[in-house]
Design a protein that fits this description.
With 269 residues, the chain is mostly helical. It has helices spanning 31-36, 41-57, 67-76, 111-116, 119-134, 138-150, 167-178, 184-200, 206-219, 237-250; strands spanning 13-15, 20-22, 88-92, 99-101, 106-110. A 3-stranded mixed sheet has the order 3-5-4, sandwiched between helices. Strands 1-2 form a two-stranded antiparallel sheet. Helix 5 crosses helix 8, helix 6 packs across helix 7 (167-178) and helix 9 packs antiparallel against helix 10 (237-250). The longest helix has 17 residues, at 41-57. The protein starts with 12 loop residues before the first strand and ends in a 19-residue tail after the last helix.
Length: 269
């Protein structure tokens, strides 16, 4: 699930004026510069934290007593140390439908996603994004985001060290980071991780199926007012839903959910 990359993702950059996420493009990068830079998992973790810290400052974060936070605590509190990862999580109160997890263990869920997803669907989405972190899909995405934000060329990156970025560059890096896309192989592996996460914790794996069905509806443009398309980099949601169904049937865990539709009222109040 997208756009949950060094982060899940699911969609674009933040605008500190209206606290919404908007897609944008940073400066280009000379390919020789990318090849010259030595980039480690530790670098990815460090830059991920800088990006998330910037995003937390530039978006409306739900407070500890906010219904969105209370719901996410109830769902996800027990998974703070999931699969050897140290995770922290918050809710962004924004209109875009998205979520992401980063190399440093940060998980951010958008309130509009919570409005249309059931508890099991949210767990499946978060599990998918954790899969991207566990599988280290984030390293190349963060390296690319860093190079674009810093506008590095062959000469400036020849030292092989990651430079310190200013606030503006960190904002660009966060944008590029969230706009990154995973390969089909990485998405498939994250889907598998999500299913296994649901199954191991005795959650209803059909939640992964219905989550993808809802994303398929969104991608078709059948959205309610105020909802925006999710997972631009997560194509073929219908096919992925059917793959979940096939595996659930094989495992004897399939329960027909009936017709899947987007809710007409918020699921978080």
């Amino acid at each position: 699930m997208k756009k949950i990359i060094v982060c899940l993702t699911f969609l674009g950059a933040m605008n500190s004026m209206n606290a919404q996420f908007n897609l944008g493009k940073a400066a280009g990068v000379v390919s020789k510069g990318a090849k010259a830079l030595t980039f480690t998992n530790e670098d990815a973790i460090k830059l991920s934290k800088e990006s998330v810290d910037w995003m937390d400052k530039n978006n409306q974060v739900a407070g500890p007593k906010d219904p969105y936070t209370v719901r996410l605590n109830k769902l996800f509190g027990k998974h703070k140390t999931q699969d050897g990862l140290n995770l922290n999580y918050k809710v962004y109160k924004v209109k875009d439908i998205n979520a992401f997890a980063c190399a440093d263990g940060s998980v951010r869920v958008f309130s509009s996603l919570m409005d249309i997803m059931t508890d099991n669907e949210l767990l499946a989405v978060i599990g998918h994004e954790i899969g991207h972190v566990k599988n280290e899909d984030t390293k190349d995405a963060m390296k690319s985001a860093y190079l674009k934000a810093a506008a590095l060329d062959a000469a400036s990156s020849a030292s092989g060290a990651v430079a310190t970025l200013n606030d503006s560059q960190i904002g660009k890096m966060a944008n590029e980071f969230l706009d990154a896309a995973h390969s089909k192989k990485q998405e498939s592996e994250a889907d598998t991780y999500s299913y296994d996460f649901m199954k191991a914790n005795k959650y209803d794996v059909v939640g992964a199926y219905t989550a993808f069905k809802k994303l398929a509806l969104l991608s078709q443009g059948n959205t309610q007012s105020g909802f925006e398309k999710m997972f631009n980099s997560h194509p073929d949601s219908e096919k992925r839903a059917q793959a979940i169904k096939k595996r659930a049937e094989k495992d004897g865990l399939w329960k027909d959910p009936g017709t899947v539709a987007l809710p007409t009222t918020k699921l978080t109040k």
